[in-house]
Amino acid sequence: MPSNPEVILRRLEWTIIRRLDGLLNGNYRSLFRGFGLDFADLREYQVNDDVRHMDWNVTARMQAPYVREYNEDREVTAWFLLDLSPSVYFGSKSVKKLMVLIDFIGVFARILTRHGNRTGVLLYSGGVEGVIRPRGGRKHVLHILNRLLTRPENSTTQTTDLSNFIVTARQIIKQRSLVFLVSDFISLPGWSGPLTQLAQRHELVAVRLYDALEMDLPDLGFIVMQDSETGEQMLVDTHDKKFRTRFAAVAQTKEIELRNALISAGVDTLELSTTDNLIESIIRFVELRKLQSQRKGSGSLKKMEACHDLSMA
């Protein structure tokens, strides 16, 4: 992977950002539900209004459907919370999770800044090791990439605790923002609660990095496995089918726990594998959010009709 931030950003602009321009028709606000929206006023519901903007408390008091109106901000502040713990440096083939993280940051930071928005970064590895305050412009994106590319690989043996990272982020990010938590979520448990609190204040997207080898271990004979978080090593026989089965079962259990924790926190998740095509992953994420919004809208419409029926009874 090139170590020059200008080379990386130019590659991303030509191979990914330009294609996303065509696929999304430049409408990057479709990537984010609450992108730059501030509450402005209330008014009675009209045909073709977005039912997701229904204010149910006011509707119940007034015995008539009311919707919230929003003003669209000209500028959005986005923060990238980057988990740079040792496990992020893992990759079973030629691509490490860190490389996926850098490409993601390059794409989204440039998308945001080229539309007049500002981006900031929190760097974490056992603790918040750096803060890049929000700024706009292409030079700022290059500064972020350079900071990531010149950072030495972390050799700490401290187990990751995302809870501390998220709590610190809440203290630093005062203004309502668009927040991306980019991590492989290999962490001590207990971060779902703080993540829920962060999501209540900001529009939050979890970006989950992973490698296929972390879930399904192939037959590689005798290998030395090392815990990238603690440094602990163990010689294992991957030719043993029972061992591989137990490994897959443990991985599946952890996967279910992770997904349940993210669902419990109420955040959407963009899944990025070391073998994924970044464009396809982003488009798939956008389409999934659109589908979820339609389902929520349909449910809200049924709820509104039920309230109307009760008020008429």
Report on the structure:
The chain is built from 8 helices and 10 strands. It has 313 residues and is of the alpha/beta class. The chain has a single domain, classed as 3-Layer(aba) Sandwich (Rossmann fold), CATH 3.40.50. A 6-stranded mixed sheet has the order 5-4-3-6-7-10, sandwiched between helices. It has a two-stranded antiparallel ribbon with strand order 1-2. The longest helix is centred in the C-terminal third of the chain and has 35 residues. The chain is globular. The chain starts with a helix and ends with a helix. The mean pLDDT is 82.
In total, the number of strands is 10
Order of helices and strands: HEHEEHEEHHEHEEEHEH
Mean pLDDT: 82
Distinct helical segment count: 8
| Main beta-sheet strand count, sense and barrel state | 6 strands, mixed
CATH architecture field:
3-Layer(aba) Sandwich
Structural class: alpha/beta
CATH class: Alpha Beta
- Fraction in helix: 40-55%
Radius of gyration from CA coordinates: 22 Å
Question: Topology of this protein?
Answer:
Elements: H1 5-24, E1 37-44, H2 56-62, E2 66-72, E3 77-83, H3 97-113, E4 118-124, E5 128-135, H4 138-149, H5 162-172, E6 178-183, H6 192-201, E7 203-210, E8 222-226, E9 233-237, H7 241-265, E10 268-273, H8 278-312
Parallel strand pairs: 3-4, 3-6, 6-7, 7-10
Antiparallel strand pairs: 1-2, 4-5, 8-9
